[in-house]
Amino acid sequence: MSDPGTTLSKHQVTCGDGLETLLNDPQDPHDPYETTETQLERLLGRALNSFDLPDSTVERLGTALAHSSALHSSHHSASLHRATYRHTYLLSDGSALSLWELTHNAGRDGAEQHELYAEESEARLAASRLPTGPLPGWTAEHSDGRVLDEDDDLELLSALLARPIPAQPRMYVPDNSADHARRVLRRAENADRPGQATARRLRLAFAHHITQAFGRHCPVEGGRDAGFTLYEHQFLLLDGSEASLWEVEHTATPDGRHMCEVYEDERAARDAMESRSRVR
């Protein structure tokens, strides 16, 4: 990768209160004249999901000549710290390409984690999936002050799982949708995930829409909390037909790690989620 020797790693940002802040690479107090090649290696090396970036994006980044990094958004609360950064690259053909980096402390040990996305919408969706639930020691109560017990938890969970998705317009976005479908299927870990026939059909996708259908934290076996989220990935195909993938994300695994499961049918996805979210 070539580099002109001077990078654009300093970037001026106007904050909401009108103050201006001069930022170097927002992630590390490295030399502001760090080469673009080194900066890219650092970003890709620490991202948990760098393997999920489209191959075409990685290939284009190989021609990057200069880069600029800026804070895009941030959120800080008692339990969650997250920030999104935009890394923009000047390519050898004169075009620009951006990577969106999400950093957060939502891992098991609270250590800072990094994720990379090729699209702002994907970074925003990933940020919305981060748990913002109660801190350890938190207890839920009824409106009359009674503490919720396990039966209440199970009843509420079952009601939420059975709740249909609210009707809403499907706003399909043409955005490399076939590749999006491929990545959804690739991260599925369940043995009964959709097979090759579905994968071949979704190669015809040219637009898609993502809907969050369910999300909640609840106690599971072992006395710990686990998060459950259900998404519908809706695709519009070249032949005018529609198809959906139902993605279940949860941390109800033996070691508490994040796991993705994908189903073609909503009922199968909800049944799988319910079977993994039994309140003990």
Structure write-up:
This protein is an alpha+beta fold and 280 residues long. It contains seven helices and ten strands. The strands form three sheets. Strands 3-4-5-6 form a four-stranded antiparallel beta sheet, with helices on both faces. The chain has a four-stranded antiparallel beta sheet with strand order 7-8-9-10. The longest helix is centred in the middle third of the chain and has 13 residues, at 150-162. The radius of gyration is 21 Å and the shape is globular.
Strand order of the largest sheet: 3-4-5-6
End-to-end CA span:
54 Å
Shape: globular
Strand content: 25-35%
Fraction of helical residues: 10-25%
Main structural class: alpha+beta
**Overall radius of gyration:** 21 Å
Can you tell me the residue ranges where pLDDT is under 50 for at least 5 consecutive residues? Answer: 1-29, 133-154, 160-168
Number of separate strands: 10
